[in-house]
User: Fold these one by one.
Assistant:
Number 1:
Amino acid sequence: MTILTPTNNTGAANSGLPDEAALNRMASEFFALVPGAAQAATQFLPSFSQGNTPEAPPSARTLVHDSSSAQSKPSVPASGVPQNAGSSIAPSRPQAGGASSSTPYYFVGQEHGYPIADNSLDSLAAQGTGKQSGASAFNVPGQEQLQRILGELYPATSATSAPAQQAGGSATQPAYYFQQGEQDYWDQAPRAANPSLAAPFDINAVRRDFPILAERVDGKQLVWFDNAATTHKPKSVIDRISYFYEHENSNIHRAAHELAARASDAYESARKKLAKFLGAASEQEIIFVRGATEGINLVAQTFGKKFIGAGDEIIVSHLEHHANIVPWQQLAVEKGAVIRVIPVDDSGQVLLDEYRKLLNSKTRLVAVTQVSNALGTIAPVHEITALAHAVGARVLIDGAQAVSHLRVNVQALDADFYVFSGHKVFGPTGIGVVYGKKALLEQLPPWQGGGNMIADVTFEHTRYQPAPARFEAGTGNIADAVGLGAAIDYVERIGLENIALYEHALLEYATHGLKSIPGVRLIGTAHEKASVASFVLARYETAEVGKALNDEGIAVRSGHHCAQPILRRFGVEATVRPSFAFYNTCEEIDRFLAVVRRLANNRK
Ligand code: PLP
């Protein structure tokens, strides 16, 4: 198939290489015109499918590592842009048809020897204002359906509200929001003040950043709707971890040699990124843990052990994942404390008035999820936190399902603790974060003892490091912390505001489709929702629906989602739970809806 005949316009002619910018642009335009053809891009154009959106000049974004340099660092000219100086930092991966191809990388700048992603607002602004050549449209496969549905849902405003209408970087304000009010995370003010935030992302380019999305299951194109369980990793994260092991691997903090310095720098730089990502006051407030579960256990074993006693009360909501129930139960049993539960209404939203009644002078801690993994409900954590503080209680927010969907600022929330898992925000497994207010962390005892967390040890006595080292005993998951930093770079490059807008459209589209299928009962219909469309189908076990979807290559979770109390509140033991990320499309939702509709029509 000879379709692509790019004009060489970036000086690549001298090298005899194809012009990647032109190819990327043409590929993007080509696949935008072919519904459902996003996957083909990874097969036809493997060399041009990875990294950032194609509109940025590859010459400024291509990194090829110079393996011959003394320190194995990429060669960086005065411009700060790594140059092509040898082999790629990432291994070639097998491509369709058995060919393998090296991959271009899209990074700008350098940090501790490792090139960092270009997230600068200038760069985003250049994309958003169409200054770059070939500004891409919001090339969403299925955007016509999306517009039609949004037109029905928002008849008065749809002409300007659909994401597809924002092509070309116009700063059109969306007419719909995830939620309104104090905790509105679609914050219009910064978006209006900074037109770059209005920059749409190119869905085809985004999908090509995630190699696993090109997988096939029994010959069918994989559809990944199990994002609430875990998210997939962009190539930049995979490459960053490889780079760590190839060029930086060492234990941190202790040894005095070059690799120890590189590893320490990479690890601490990731901590800084996480602090910025969460809006923390300082990186000393960021503790690396294995994930949200370990984070909640850390708070239970430190804050809980020190500040919660017999007769004290811990409040959780009915929405909680087991990870935010069991550690408090264990603590309550040990200490003689009492657990109280905020009820939810029939839509799955927490009842603030009932919550107010639970608060009293014995309340020591309120531990709530920001987004429910089973229902998708976004809880009013601003109000919950303020009300808890009014009675002197501390607040832990479980952000496991929140950070990949909405902008979080722990200082604006005034959270005392905030936890999440890296693997749910496009980062590696086995790494997560506890944010804690510095003044509070300094009052807490360690929870595990060992190396790294001590200042001085004798057989009689140990002095501990301040936070965060005090809570990071032993060798941590260094490489994955660094990989999580790369995931944060990636998410910031797309922009959480863009992600929120697009995912909201996906959720509306899926919800609308599900509602039209006889026998479907949605579980969780709160006005404020993110990403999750839990449902049951009359006369089918949830496992049967999950299997029928899997037979078509569509991955959803069916089961109790580690949140049995909230499902039982709705009279069910299990649901089918498609959950969306910004790399999903309306075409994929159509495939999913077709299976559910077929099952509904062929009722047993
Ligand atoms: N909290 C919520 C809301 C979750 O959805 C999950 C996982 O699904 C967790 C906590 C636990 O996360 P992890 O298993 O990564 O520790």
Note: Residues 291-293, 321, 323-324, 369, 373, 398, 400-401, 421, 562 surround pyridoxal-5'-phosphate (CB under 6 Å).
Number 2:
Amino acid sequence: MRFKASTIFVTGGAGFIGSAVIRHLLRNTHARVVNIDKFTYAANSDSLPGTTDNLNYAFEKQCICDGAGLRHLFAKYQPDAVMNLAAESHVDRSIDGPGEFIQTNIVGTFTLLQEALRYWRTLSNEKREQFRFLHISTDEVFGSLGDDGFFTETTAYAPNSPYSASKASSDHLVRAWRETYDLPTLVTNCSNNYGPYHFPEKLIPHMIIKGLAGEPLPVYGDGKNIRDWLYVEDHAKALTLVLEHGTVGETYNVGGRNERTNLHVVESICDLLDEVAPRSGAHRDLITFVADRPGHDHRYAIDASKLERELGWQAEENFESGIGKTVRWYVDKQPWWRAILERGYATKRVGLSQ
Ligand code: NAD
Ligand code: TDX
């Protein structure tokens, strides 16, 4: 009985990965889930269908930078675990406006750690032993790879964007709270996620939506940058496994062994759109090379063998199966993303540092 009688805080649970984690927990475990989310532009209650009537689910609109608010929630719900996914997550936005990234990703993680520690110290010895604080981070903290090699759990940190620097900083805080105060923390570093409910600013949904509109598909630079794609539901399963069976104080890399150039990703989307939503010309004709992202990391690639070996995790989707499902999801679920556009989200270029 996975997580029977356990209460799990999921911060950022109205976002892309957080909502996948909540859907997974509610569907496959007995956990009671409390979604703690400030509800920024990236949040979406439509990503959590069926939760309003679910007795195992509660939502609290709450910023993780507000210690008093968090203290109240720890006292109210007495959680057994915290999964911290609340973050500003978009690299291009961090170039134009790094302040929010410093606040949420660094100050917010610090505040959450302080309140988790304060609460943890009030628990019985048995409950303290069982408590877990899982911090969800990114492979971008490791910087950029050349054409060879992989990021492992021991790769040195070398973040290049305001986003990745803020995430690196939060990872260090989590580690320090374990080493100094014994708070039972774990960290995961994951590669690029994709799949249903992905906010349209990110590469894959951005290209699908623009392709469906017959608009130019803006590929940064020469399109040869490489990302290592992981289907979001595989990530949600990995995070649940780490929470359940991971060793306190350890970090785990999560990745799908699916490196692709950005151009390959966009061409694959075009070819799928030709099949499921044909237009008069080929969708590949819409591909347009545009100015590069400042500080654009060349390549990310995750070695996930520790997670596979120690916890028995395996990605179920490869890039071809996952991108097919994703394109079909965006074609079928147009009301989900059209509502975001109607709320005022403009699919325009940001992050040129001008
Ligand atoms: P997202 O932007 O889709 O969602 C973030 C959520 O956090 C939103 O619901 C937002 O309202 C909430 N939030 C933001 N600031 C908050 C605050 N101050 N207090 C409370 N809630 C706040 O992000 P995502 O893609 O789901 O990413 C989740 C986590 O996973 C992040 O920590 C991100 O760094 C990490 N990550 C993401 C990816 C990826 O490919 N998307 C890859 C690796 C790691
Ligand atoms: O229009 C675009 N054209 C383009 O060429 C966009 C939006 C992106 N790109 C490129 C930039 C990157 O090389 O595609 C690649 C992927 O871009 P994003 O979707 O913005 O993702 P990335 O910058 O790689 O970061 C993502 O993965 C790691 C998430 O946003 C982070 O939160 C996560 O930590």
Note: Residues 89-92, 138, 140, 192, 202-203, 206, 218-220, 225, 227, 262, 293 surround thymidine-5'-diphospho-beta-D-xylose (ligand 2) (CB under 6 Å).
